[in-house]
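re: ur question from earlier - yeah i can do the single chain one, its not a big deal. heres the input i used so u can compare w yours
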Amino acid sequence: SCKSHARFQNGPAKVIHMGMSHISGEEMLAGLKRHFAPGTYDLLKKNCNSFVDCALFYLLRRRLDGKYRILEQMLECIDDYVAFVRILSMGEYMPNPKAN
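and the output i got, formated as tokens:
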């Protein structure tokens, strides 16, 4: 079974077929790894949805549906001005400067 879905007891909640690409996984990794280097993760700015959006575009020239990113985009915008997420997380969330 897929390790990335191990936390789901009955598999992922939903699998959406987005298309097929002639680009290999190795080629995609080579093209994206400099943008997702170790230590650059950020809860709002560079997370798994960010990676999926970039991978989809790299492979298929398609974007991740905005409904999967709207909440984090709104929170990022608000947090930039009033530290909303940092306040809600009682200081646990701090923006990662390496994510830019």
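The chain has a mean pLDDT of 88. not sure if urs matches, ping me
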